[in-house]
Amino acid sequence: MLYLNEQDIRETVTMQDMIDAIDESYHIYHKKDYTMPTRMQLKDENNTLVVMPCIGDGAFGTKLITTFPDNIEEPTIHGLFILKCETTGKIQAIIDGSFLTGMRTGAIGGSAIRHLAKEDASSIAIIGTGVQGFYQAEAACSERPIKDIYLYNRTPEKMNSFRESLAPYLESDVTIHLCDSAAEAIKDAEIIITATTSDQPVLPNEATLLQGKLIVGIGSFQPTMREFPQSAYSLAAHVLVDSDDAIKESGDLTQPLENQWLEENSIKTMADFLATDNSSPKSDETTLFKSTGIALFDIVSANKIFHKAIQKEIGQVLINSEPDYQKNM
């Protein structure tokens, strides 16, 4: 059994490896070559325990995640991923689920940018400078020649620490701008990324600020949460989701559907988009992409991390008996 912590994962895979894993997941999702029940969510006031099992990509796996949105000193997300052998059921790896979640969710946004953003897009706005905002910025910069990053957070003092932690992962010619409002942040950005747990739209309801941009919604994962304003739906030429589950789980889709700002038949999964349409949206079109994440992303990402870690001899062996991966090498 192998234990892989954050440092191990960083040494094992790149963000582009993780984006590749998300694209592989979309291929599996389109073929329906997996088994995945609806995630189980247990609520305790604002706090949530999420259990996400999946069978696919030659492995069994389960992720346990807690989200505590009111955390200030601690991250809002803590987790663990257990990867098991499809043949014997033995535990192959225990993986830092918080970092896995952060990196693969960043990769979901990165995949959207890979396939939907203009090739020469050089500016992004990130609304919400928590942990997920960091991975979204890293993923965006791995896929496009980003030169300007505009930040806005409802707690302004968090933006300075975010800038300091992000800077080592960026090219030297990238400028990070701290903004006083979401409107200021998105004004000159070609790609807008929202990464909050807000129950009210965090983007201004101003069509002129949203027109012709790729808007990636990462934060809202429950029907009571919403990040997109009403005007975004009337502008959108394309509305894409990472899975059909997002249509039921996020207020960014349930609420506009209830209010008839959006028709369900206008929503398309990224899996279907990639399988049937190789052309990117036009540069003057507004595109919405909404993610809530699914266990399939975790199992494919974890399996990639595990096998690369074995090849590179990275990680800590917790049990000194012959594990299944040695038999199969």
CATH fold type of the largest domain: Rossmann fold
Q: What is the share of helical residues? A: 25-40%
CATH class of the largest domain: Alpha Beta
N→C terminal distance: 15 Å
**Poorly predicted spans:** none
- Assembly category: single chain
- Number of extended strands: 16
Count of alpha/pi helices: 13
What's the mean pLDDT score? 92
Fourth CATH level, the homologous superfamily of the largest domain: NAD(P)-binding Rossmann-like Domain
Proportion of strand residues: 15-25%
Q: What structural class results from the helix and strand content?
A: alpha/beta
How many domains? 2
N-to-C order of helices and strands: EHHEEEEEEHEHEHEHEHEHEHHEHEHEH
Q: Which outline best applies? A: globular
Please give the CATH architecture of the largest domain: 3-Layer(aba) Sandwich
Largest sheet at a glance? 8 strands, mixed
Please compute the radius of gyration using only Cα atoms. Answer: 19 Å
